[in-house]
Amino acid sequence: MPIDRRELFVGTVAGLVAACSRGSAGEPEQVVIASPPADPALVRVASVKTAVEGSLLPKLAAMFEQASKYRVHVETGTQVYDLAREGKADVVVSHYGHKDAEQFVLDGLGEFPRTICSNQMALIGPTADPARVRGLDDLGEAIRRIAAAKAPFFVNDLDGVQYLFEIAWHAAGKPERTGWLSNEHVSKDAAVTRASQLGAYTLWGLTPFMQLEKSLTLEPLVLGDPLLQRMLVTIVVRPDRVAHANHAGALAFQTFLLEPSTQAAMRTIHYSDDRSVTWVPGGRHNRTAVLPKA
Description:
CATH class of the largest domain: Alpha Beta
Number of strands: 10
Largest sheet: 8 strands, mixed
Number of helices: 11
Distance between the termini: 59 Å
Number of domains: 2
Helix content: 25-40%
Shape: elongated
Radius of gyration: 24 Å
Order of helices and strands: HEHHEHEHEHEHEHEHEEHHE
């Protein structure tokens, strides 16, 4: 008998609908309905410290509150994705390479990351600057000069920072490491404190360095190389996976951060009152279709 194409099409669609409505054991899948936010007017932001201590997020949150119907509560720390998993955040602000960001999205708990800006890292060193690197805009050249002068360099033994050093070391021509490079396998503030004790150069974020600066004998010397910019993103928490997430508020805040006027405003926000270094907007790194329309 000839095949009736209309019957074949209807039967195929019906089969697909039935298959999609059942789990792997043949049981109907439960449709997850997002629970309403506890306070629709409140946007809860979990942010890494640098965006808060560097003055960026507090100022932008205040601007958002003035321009919208929302209030913003910012909580900061290192375990920002734990807060989101526990239902205590609607949107997370973190580095793109944060150790928990990828798994949070792969677990289906967050939407695709949207780049918003980058924070400033720095080559930090003694005020005397024996390698004469102050003001350079080429991190590789700075490392080459440090190696050539046998000036001490202390490794900040943190994955992302050490990776950055390795890039710069290759850019410097892979100079012999003996006589100037030391690694005691300490990281973060402890590494910078130890570098100060040794009168050594090191790499660290500008914001955390400024929290320690008064107790150190070091200063930021190289800031201009684009390698020293580290991207920050927003990840909106999915309300169908995390109870009481304020999805509408989170999207509104993320859209505000990507507005051209907000991106431009980031360039006027200084890390502190006595420095010329400002935040670098990064919204353009997103797919154009997701950016706010003019």
